[in-house]
Amino acid sequence: MMLGHRADLPFDRDQSTRFLPWIVALMVFLGALMFAGAMVVSDTIDSWDSTLTGRMTVQVPKDSATDAATGTLVTLLSATPGVTAVRPVPANEARALLVPWLGEEVLDSGLPIPALIDVELAAGARLDASLLTARLSQSVPGTTVDDHRVWLSALINLGRAIEILAFIILGLIASSAIVAVIFTTRSGLAVHAAIIELLHQMGAHDTYIAGQFQIQAMKLSLRGGIAGTAAAAIVLLAFAWVGRGIDAAFLPPVTLTIAEWITLLIVPAGAVAIAMFTARVTVMRALTRMP
Amino acid sequence: MLRFENVGMRYGIGPEILRDISFSLPPGSFHFLTGSSGAGKTTLLKLMYLALRPTRGLVHLFDKDISLTPRDDLPALRRRIGVVFQDFRLIDHLTAVENVALPLRVNGGRHAEIDSHVRELLSWVGLGDRLDARPSTLSGGQQQRIAIARAVINRPRLLLADEPTGNVDDHIAVRLMHLFEELNRAGTTVVIATHNHALIEEFGHPVLQLDNGELAVRRNIQAPAVSPGTGKT
Fold first, then answer.
1. Chain A closest-CA separation from residue B82 CA (Å)
2. Host H or E run for residue A26
3. Model pTM above 0.80
4. How near does any CA of chain A get to the CA of B97, in Å?
5. Which residues of A touch B71 (CB under 8 A)?
6. What burial class does residue A130 get, using C-beta atoms within 10 Å of its C-beta: 0-12 exposed, 13-18 middle, 19+ buried?
7. Closest CA to A84 of A118, A50, A131, A48
8. pLDDT tens digit string along B117-176?
9. Helix, strand or coil for residue A121?
């Protein structure tokens, strides 16, 4: 005979609790995918940001791209305040950058590839691309300056918007989980009203009764949380496996680091914490109506 | 111990179930509570074990004015009250031992102490061989004895029993009454609600008589323990 290991309330006979693990599993699954997506987008933005911020690329039309013209441009650029390094991009390197986009055949067909000069700027330095273009074209006609900030900032804004959207959806999923737990707990309060009244009469504090609902909510949500996380992990690993075969520079890598996998556990842990807290608050509020 | 002053009770906007109830029970007293069906016995008991708050009047319990007692302090008072319900209110999924142990668990008792204490009491009420039985497998009389054991396991200062002998044979009823008297001798104040006039006559304790929501206090054979308040004697 073991005393004290059985809950006073027979939750296993409560039909409404049977759905909670499934609801939590679905929400954790969606939430984990959202969270992983947000982390991938964040990684990609950071990568673009660190690679391209503080850089400009000068393009010299193939016809004007003599060594003398390139040398003139390098001299002009080096003398420009805010520029810390200037590097003419070798032709084979420029070609390598274009291969994923145009393919070998198109490049071999005599496509005029402009010469590129990579310009590094000092931290915080901002140069007006149009003014610089005007100044450089006076020396080498047709020269243009590509300021990555223009398209990068639009892309970063889009990425941040996607991140915010992902977190809003996570918030909505959490809200739905809260509603599901509230309904399940209220149903449990109604089903077990007689026993709750009995415990109350025996002098049970509200926290004693709420604790039993809390433990039940923990068990159910933990079950759902583990299932939902496992399902999300399978989907993410499948994406990573499929994505491994795609060699596309424009697609972010659909993989998570070890730290991110660990961070992902916030979703099921959060679901369990939300379920426990919601159950407790719901029961405590309901019990205050008792004398 | 327990004092009611001009207590009135109504449910919602319905008629008053209890009107101008005034009485006091000294510590260590033993009373029967009787009255016809619908007279308000169960409501009066609920007021006594703090399951209801009166709509008017004052209830003093253990020297505290209940209307002024913070809600958080009420569990401590309830733990000093044992209640035997007419419908037993045993928890079906718990065994006899677990049901009886419930007040001790609620009170934060240690498992080992609870276990031995509960087994001893269940043996005393004649259920030593049914410790692990679920209530649904026991007879009405056995369930009643578990309900009584659960009510007294905490050695309450006030014991309230609603028809505690309603489902048992006469000899068991007498034995249970002796248990209540033994608790009473140990200092527990006892109120037994019953229709069993033979039992009331046999044990001779003072009677609280409810009629149409009004209380009359009737001395039985020996009746020094009751202060009548506004009740009629």
1. 8
2. helix A20-52
3. no
4. 8
5. 288, 291
6. exposed
7. A118
8. 899 889 888 888 888 899 999 988 888 889 989 999 988 999 999 988 776 777 778 878
9. strand
Output Rg (C-alpha) for chain A, integer angstroms: 30
Nearest CA in chain B to A200: B75
Total beta-carbon pairs less than 8 A apart between chain A and chain B: 71
Q: How far apart are CA A234 and CA A230, in angstroms?
A: 6
Q: CA dist A49 to A16, A42, A93, B206, Å? A: 49, 10, 21, 90
Domains plus CATH for chain B?
A: 1-80+156-233 (3.40.50.300), 90-155 (no CATH)
Alpha-carbon distance A45 to A253, whole Å? 12
Which positions of chain B have pLDDT values less than 50?
A: 221-233
For residue A176, how many C-alpha atoms fall within 13 Å in the half-sphere facing its CB? 16
For the record, the structure tokens of B119 come out as: 């087994």
- Nearest Cα residue in chain A from B82: A202
Q: Are B196 and B173 in contact (CB under 8 A)?
A: yes
Q: Give B192's strand partners.
A: B32, B161
Radius of gyration of chain B (CA): 17
- For A14, the token pair is 């409560």
pLDDT in tens, B160-182: 999 887 767 777 788 788 888 98
- What is the rounded distance in angstroms from the CA atom of residue A69 to the CA atom of residue A278? 70
Does A203 contact B111 at a Cβ distance shorter than 8 Å?
A: no
Please report, in angstroms and rounded to a whole number, the separation of the first and last CA atoms in chain B: 20
Option in B71, B107, B118 nearest A203 (CB): B107
CB contact under 8 Å between A6 and B94, yes or no, is yes
- Asked if the interface predicted TM-score (ipTM) of this complex is over 0.90, the answer is no
For residues A252 and A40, is the Cβ–Cβ distance under 8 A? yes
Q: Do A203 and B75 touch (CB under 8 A)?
A: yes
Neighbours of B137 (CB within 10 A): 12
Question: Residue A252: what pLDDT?
Answer: 64
